[in-house]
Every structure is written in C-alpha cells, then in structure tokens.
Amino acid sequence: MEMMIRARRNRRTGAIRGLVRETKLGVEDLIYPLFFHEDEEDVAIASMPGCVRWSVSGLVKEVEEAYALGIRAVVLFPKIGERLKSSDGAECANDEGLVPKAIRAIKKACPGMCVITDVALDPYNSDGHDGIVMRGEDGELKILNDETVDILCEQALCHARAGADIVAPSDMMDGRIGAIRVALDDAGFEEVGIMAYTAKYASAFYGPFRGALDSAPKEGDKKTYQMDPGNVREAVRELILDEEEGADIVMVKPAGPYLDVIARLRDETTLPVAAYQVSGEYLMIKSACSGGWLNEKAVVMESLLGIKRAGADMILTYFAKDVAGWI
Ligand code: PBG
Questions:
Q1: What's CA 74's distance to the chain center, in Å?
Q2: Active-site residue (options: 79, 107, 253, 286)
Q3: Does position 215 have pLDDT exceeding 90, yes or no?
Q4: Which atom of ligand 1 is nearest to the CA of 226?
C-alpha cells in the first residue's frame, strides 16, 4: 500500500507523542476549593466522599500540604453556624467572622498561596439563597438585586481587609462586578482581583456542594439569577458585561457539561477563562471509580485535559491535590 501521509507516525512513541501534544495540564493550572467550619474537628463530607470540612487549623495544614505539592491557589467555602444566619446575611461582612479568620491564618502560614474567596450570601442567608429574599404580594419569592449587591460589596471589602488576593462573586446578581470593583478601588484595594462567575448555570450538579455546606435554598430554586442551561449567547452577553465592569478572570460553571460555553468564551475574550469542575462532576467520577468501574487517575486527568482543551486557562477542581501528586 502506497501512502505518503501516515498520521500514526506522530503517535509511535511516548517521546514523539509528548512532542506533538497540544494541550497539557500543569499543577499551576489548578485551583483547590476547600470547605471549613468553626468547629475544632475535621469532618468527612458525606455528600462528597474524599472531601473534608476542615477546622481552621486543619485548613491551614491542608493548604500547606497543597502548597508543598505545587498548588498555588485555593478558593474558600465556609459552613456558617445556623445561629449566625439571617435574612440579610450580615455575618458575611464581619471582620472577626470565619472567613477573615481563615484568610489571615492561611496568609500567615503560607504567604505564597493565592487566596480566592467566594462572594455570595448563600452560606449566611437563612433562606439559603445567594441574595436577599423577599416575598412579593403574589406570594412569589423575589431575590432583591441591588440591595444584595450593596452587601456583596461589604463582603468583598471584608475579604480584602483580611488579605484575600482575589474575590470571586458567585451570586449572579446584575452589576455586582462593577460595584465591587468601585468599592475595592475606593478603599485602596486596587490590587485585589475579581474572578467573575460569568456563566454560572442553574445546575443540578451543585447538589453535593449544598450538602457539604448545608446551604440549599429553603424554598424555590436559583433559576431567576443563575443561567438557563440551554443558553450560550446569553453567556457571551454576561461576558461582555463582566468585561466592561472590570473582571480580571471570567468563569464558566459547571465545566464538563458546558465545554462549548468554555470554548465560546475563549474565542470571545482576551481575558483568562476559568472553569469549575463542580461537586456533581466530582461525585460522578468518584462513585464510578469507587465501584472499580473506572480508573480514577486516568479518568480525572482526561476530564481535566478536556476542560483545558476546550479553552480553560485554569480549573477549579476538588481533585486538585490528587492531581498535583500525580503530575
Ligand atoms: C454558591 C456556590 C455554589 C457553588 C459554588 N458557589 C452553589 C450554588 O450556587 O448553589 C457550587 C460548587 C459546586 O457544586 O462544586 N454561591
């Protein structure tokens, strides 16, 4: 058989495959999400096997271990005590609260770690929503936008005062990126970055996370602020707004079921694009592998490589520490 071109020549050895590989995953691409609470014990999270809700001291130890493995960014998710929750989530801006305490402890022990914080009301809000809830005269729940944005600005300032490097608004209120940018700049925090949850979908894949933080909405769903899973043009619209409002990094969430959205945002922006492999994606892989049906290491690496290939510059993943050890 006469053939000038044989595509398999570039796949013949590991060395050649390494030379021609287009997408690579490095430990510097990873952001490690961490859960913690005010209790003294480190507790296994039932809805997310392999994940732990850390005490603050356990959290610091975990951060140091991750750092030693090469991880340079973490994102913090607190479980707030029920007694501290309220309808306006005011605890979110308490300088002596759990998150500022954790930021200071991490920065003291591990100053080189980039600390990213979640900005949203759901862990603090007695209604379990990302914004302030009001009941309209028709009995319908309404999530108040502008009132929520005012509190999110206070929350972002509180995180900045404690030493956060980047704040990450995950609430999906309109105008919050611009408002937070102005609030940070006015307070002299022009160096604190904003990672915007730009295209955050109203997804069923967040279930295990809400179990981990006990933060599920008490009533209703998040469809009036998180995006409809059918939409991609709308993601571009959100991107344009977040760019105009001063976002430094834009995010797509979830990641695996939304690879086309990642690719689209990659094409439409010069900003770095982040993708969040969320709790449900983690749990699907974990459960298939714990049954021995799939090879965990291979499947995790392939799932993350796929997210990078789609166009993500960085990935938030609960597998970050495992991956850092494997690489
Ligand atoms: C809340 C928030 C959620 C996640 C990150 N920030 C849950 C939600 O929007 O209901 C989900 C992350 C995951 O599922 O891993 N603002």
A1: 9
A2: 253
A3: no
A4: 9
